[in-house]
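Students often ask what a holo structure prediction actually looks like on paper. The answer is less mysterious than it sounds. You provide the chain, you provide the ligand, and the output is a string of discrete structure tokens encoding the 3D arrangement of the protein together with magnesium ion.
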Amino acid sequence: MGRIRVLEERVAGQIAAGEVVERPASVVKELIENSLDAGAARVDVEIEAGGADRIRVADDGSGMAREDAILAFERHATSKIQSAEDLRSIASFGFRGEALPSIASVSRTKLTTSTGGAGGGTRVRAHAGVVLGAEPASHPRGTTVEVEALFHNAPARRKFLRSPATEAAHIAEVVGRIAAAHHEVSFTLKSGGRDLVSWPAVGSSLERVGQIVGPDDATAFVTIDRSGGLTRVGGLASVPALSRSTAREQNLFVNHRPIRDRRLLHAVQEAYVTLLPKGRYPIVYLFLDVPPEEVDVNVHPAKSEVRFLRAGAVHDLVREALMEGLGRSQPFYTLRDAPRGVAEAAPTRPDPGDGAAQRAPVPAEPGVLFDSVSLAPLAQFRDSYILASAPDGLVIVDQHAAHERVLFDRLLAQNRSGTVERQRLLFPVTVEVPPAERQAFEGAAEAFEALGFGCAPFGETTLIVDEVPALVSSAPIDRLVREILGEILEWRKAEGIDRLLLRIAATTACHAAITARRPLGPGQMDQIVSDLLRTERPMTCPHGRPVLLRLSLEQIEKEFRRR
Ligand code: ADP
Ligand code: MG
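The corresponding structure tokens follow.
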């Protein structure tokens, strides 16, 4: 007798459930998506013990008639597509007909639903994948699904559940992500009877994001809006003063569907490359509208990844859109937010118990650096900082970071126009380089040259430098070249040559810039500050650290009790 057998339906169901239902948050996600597909205007979620004991999702959508409510528990039963043809342009969240049967196969599930018509409602119960029956029940128009004892029959999975607080945090994140893309729907989330989320329907996704991030942070975003062909990207992106230590709050949506996409995250990172230091990540909510036929959503069981027909173009559009938005608006670091933005140590994901239920007004335009801000240097502090007076406050300028930004912009501008000013060294400098760096140099000689370095290999382990960009004339050349070679070693071809140019320019500017602990005369201070204000991004140095810190007049007057 052969040894291969077709699996019993129930076993197959549990295996499939493994793909769709990874943890309580995946149940919540699938149920909310069903509610949205049913046209719900409000979705109320309740959980107990992080969803492991109980998850309840109630909506006021279309509801189902009795036969449909029973059929919904059958594998591959869906009302959303009929043929493979329909897969090419999917407008609903669901289409695989897998969620309800998968959830039911690893829990005790109860679905109560009504179309609001005369016939009354229906309740269907299923236990570990077996439908126990359907009975009449009363329910307003809409559907309530209750899922109890998740994974009770899949001990291996149950064992892998994290603490209720962690699972609840994942659920809050899922609710937030879906809600962000559906501002016209009201959402609530209760955990163990406590309100975590209460977001009434609002008029725009900007207002919804304001509800999600809370009133304090809502002012630290810029709006994004750019189209390329039939693709459009809109949304919100945090200014450099508001950043996180993880990339978890980079929210991407394609046609209202939350997705993960490494390439697009890379585009986000590129847009912030000189605005945030290494290891800091912005908060973004980016909504992409892509023609359905240009994006394949059927590439992942949980539908959280998609494939773009023109992935490169979408990547570039996202980067350009962010750079445009961030370039328009350059808010000051203030004494309150500078430490958070830059030196904050711990991840700041809010515990769902603390203040997730915030309401906020529409994000206001952040304090923007007006075209013609005037900064008048008053004095130097500790030979490292320039204190300057601005019309509405006191500004502290990090002299090194400021000069670095000035030189960086100058070098790149010269590079772009092909007019890098070079200086021939009277005595060429030889730099000893280990084999790895030597290899790196070979791969990047062009970028070196384009930024004004005259550099050639000499023997196996030596480089001779006989020309440098004019602006670095006084820096120790061998240290600079060695550091640049280190940068090149870290650089990956996939990042693109532009990124390498930025890195080399940033390192060069850093070495050439005046250092901290150097006394400056009034003329030098004036020069640095006025040059800085003429750069495109005076707020951060090329490595993403802050340059200017403001104590506003209002803060000062408040502290002195004049207000
Ligand atoms: P899919 O969403 O992929 O179609 P599901 O297993 O999630 O598959 O749901 C099966 C079907 O049950 C859906 O196609 C829909 O017709 C129906 N359904 C599920 N949840 C709801 C709901 N909250 N309101 C109305 N109909 C629903
Ligand atoms: Mg579904």
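The chain is about 35% helix and 25% strand.
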